[in-house]
Automatic annotation (TrEMBL):
Its main location: membrane. Residues 59-295 form the ABC transmembrane type-2 domain. The keyword Transmembrane applies. It comes from the Bacteria. Residues 14-28 have a biased composition (Low complexity). It comes from Corallococcus soli. This is Transport permease protein.
Length: 296
């Protein structure tokens, strides 16, 4: 008989061999965005939202160009035969009125753009943004930059007709023109935001704007020069901060001589447009930030 070969039988006491396991890897730490990144994100979202909403409304794009052209042509043609300025005999009324219409485009664009503050508050969008990580100053800057971008795009479209107003495009002071338009847009949108935050209805907002901003434009030297106005009206026009917008655009397009000819006896605000508009913008953006930060 063949001898039995013993076969090892595993018992329950013997532990099976296990493959070595890798050491557990700690999950990668998630980096939180910094404060500056959160503020910039808030500004960027609000700016892009206003610009996209503007281009999704074709009537606003068409009206942005058609309305100022019609306004400039009708009023400019009507007063062309009776307009005379001593010292600026070569300056017709359409040339004189053109910088005022440029400022009017920025003004009306600021009014219609900042009215979205009332709409966004009614829809609850601004409440959601204010509850986010962005500060209220970032909300003000985002809305102001979005509204200013729309106003500058509309004004730039109208400036394409500058050669028809006798403007030599080679002699334009483009840095001055850009600085005046940007600061004017920021100042006017800041004013619009400050008023829109206090006014609860769109109809009330339009009424307040008609009583405040429209007279400011009329008394800015846009429709008639400071020279020739009555003594009281001349002082009102000289104290009007929007006058620096009109005079700055006029000086950038036609030169300092044209601005001196239609300004006050002392030269008006020639040379002071940028500092005055910078202060104007800082005051009204600060007022808008204060209004937004007000607890309700």
């Amino acid at each position: 008989m063949s001898a039995d070969i013993p076969v090892p039988v595993p018992t329950s006491l013997e532990a099976p061999e296990q493959a070595p396991q890798a050491a557990p890897v700690a999950p990668a730490s998630r980096r939180e965005p910094g404060t500056l990144a959160l503020q910039w994100a808030t500004v960027r979202v609000l700016l892009a939202r206003d610009v996209v909403r503007f281009f999704r409304q074709p009537s606003r794009v068409i009206g942005a160009l058609a309305q100022p052209i019609l306004f400039w042509f009708v009023i400019g043609s009507g007063f062309a035969g009776s307009f005379r300025v001593e010292g600026a005999q070569g300056l017709g009324y359409q040339q004189f009125f053109f910088p005022g219409v440029v400022t009017m485009v920025v003004l009306f664009s600021a009014i219609f753009a900042t009215i979205t503050v009332i709409e966004d508050r009614k829809e609850g969008f601004l409440q959601a943004v204010l509850a986010g990580p962005g500060s209220r100053l970032a909300v003000v800057l985002g809305k102001a930059l979005g509204s200013s971008t729309i106003a500058l795009m509309q004004a730039s479209l109208f400036l394409l007709f500058a050669p028809l107003a006798g403007v030599d495009v080679r002699a334009v002071d483009y840095p001055l023109l850009a600085a005046v338009m940007v600061l004017s847009a920021l100042a006017l949108t800041g004013m619009g935001m400050a008023l829109a935050w206090w006014v609860r209805s769109s109809a009330g907002y339009h009424a307040v704007m008609s009583l405040v901003m429209l007279p400011m434009w009329v008394l800015s030297g846009a429709m008639f020069p400071v020279k020739g106005a009555g003594p009281v009206l001349s002082w009102v026009m000289l104290l009007n901060p929007m006058r620096f917008s009109v005079e700055g655009v006029r000086r950038a397009l036609y030169g300092a001589q044209a601005s001196l000819a239609v300004g006050s006896a002392g030269g008006g605000g020639v040379g002071w447009e940028v500092p005055a508009l910078l202060a104007f913008a800082a005051v009204f953006l600060g007022l808008a930030a204060f209004s937004v930060s007000r607890r309700e």
